[in-house]
C-alpha cells in the first residue's frame, strides 16, 4: 500500500482502519519528533500526536492532496494543538497566580519585595532582547498605557505596523519568559 492508496481508501470509505494504520506507521514517529521539537516533552509529544491523529481522522475529508503533502497537513494540525496546549497552560498559570496573590491591604514583607524586584529585573532583561522599536512600543503601551493608535501617531508609523510589532514583542516576551521559568 502507498500513501496515495491509503488516502484514496479513506476518502472512499474502504478499509479505513487498515489505511489509517498504514499512515500512522508511515508518519507517526516523524510526527512525534516534530511535536517533541515544539513541546520539549515526550509526554506532551505523545499527547499531541494522539490529538493530531484523532483530529486528522475526524477531518480527513478536508485534506486535499493537491494543496499540501499529508505529513505537512499533520504537522499543521499538530502545531495548532500545541498552540492550544501552550495557551491552556498560560491560562492555568494565570489562574493559579491570581489565587496566590495576597490581599491588597497587606503590606509586602521583605521576601515579597525581593521577589518583586527580581521579577522587575527579569522583565527588563527580557525586554532588552527586543529590537529598539519593539522596546519603545512595549514601554509606551504597558508603562504609559498608551493605545497603539497614540503610539503610531507619536512615532509617525502606520497603526498596523505598531500593532504587529507590539504583538510580536508580546509573543517574544512570553516565549522568553517561558524559557526563563521552565
Mean pLDDT: 82
Radius of gyration: 23 Å
Largest sheet: none
Q: Helix segment count?
A: 8
Number of strands: 0
The N- to C-terminal Cα distance equals 43 Å
The CATH architecture name of the largest domain reads Orthogonal Bundle
Poorly predicted ranges (pLDDT <50, ≥5 residues)?
Answer: none
Shape: elongated
Explained architecture:
With 182 residues, the protein is mainly α. It folds into two domains: 3-92, Orthogonal Bundle (Rna Polymerase Sigma Factor, Chain: A); 112-181, Orthogonal Bundle (Arc Repressor Mutant, subunit A), CATH 1.10.10. Helices cover 79% and strands 0% of the residues. It has eight helices and no strands. The protein has helices at 3-12, 16-39, 42-58, 70-100, 110-127, 132-143, 148-155, 159-181. Helix 2 (16-39) packs across helix 4 (70-100), helix 3 packs across helix 4 (70-100) and helix 6 (132-143) packs across helix 8. The longest helix has 31 residues, at 70-100.
Q: Could you write a compact summary of the structure shown?
A:
This protein has eight helices and no strands. The protein has helices at residues 3-12, 16-39, 42-58, 70-100, 110-127, 132-143, 148-155, 159-181.
Task: Set out the fold topology.
Blueprint: H1 3-12, H2 16-39, H3 42-58, H4 70-100, H5 110-127, H6 132-143, H7 148-155, H8 159-181
Helix pairs in contact: 1-2, 2-3, 2-4, 3-4, 5-8, 6-8, 7-8
Tags for this model:
182 residues; mainly alpha; Rna Polymerase Sigma Factor, Chain: A; Arc Repressor Mutant, subunit A; 2 domains; 8 helices; 0% strand
Amino acid at each position: 500500500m502507498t500513501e496515495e492508496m491509503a488516502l484514496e481508501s479513506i476518502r472512499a470509505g474502504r478499509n479505513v482502519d487498515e489505511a489509517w494504520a498504514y499512515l500512522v506507521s508511515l508518519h507517526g514517529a516523524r510526527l512525534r519528533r516534530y511535536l517533541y521539537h515544539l513541546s520539549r516533552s515526550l509526554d506532551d509529544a505523545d499527547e499531541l500526536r494522539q490529538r493530531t491523529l484523532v483530529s486528522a481522522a475526524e477531518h480527513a475529508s478536508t485534506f486535499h492532496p493537491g494543496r499540501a503533502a499529508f505529513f505537512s497537513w499533520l504537522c499543521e494540525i499538530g502545531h495548532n494543538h500545541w498552540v492550544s496546549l501552550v495557551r491552556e497552560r498560560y491560562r492555568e498559570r494565570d489562574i493559579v497566580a491570581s489565587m496566590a496573590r495576597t490581599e491588597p491591604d497587606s503590606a509586602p514583607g521583605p521576601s515579597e519585595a525581593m521577589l518583586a524586584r527580581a521579577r522587575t529585573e527579569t522583565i527588563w532583561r527580557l525586554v532588552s532582547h527586543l529590537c529598539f522599536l519593539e522596546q519603545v512600543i512595549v514601554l509606551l503601551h504597558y508603562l504609559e498605557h498608551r493605545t497603539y493608535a497614540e503610539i503610531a501617531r507619536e512615532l509617525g508609523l502606520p497603526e498596523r505596523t505598531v500593532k504587529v510589532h507590539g504583538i510580536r514583542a508580546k509573543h517574544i516576551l512570553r516565549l522568553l519568559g517561558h524559557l526563563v521559568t521552565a
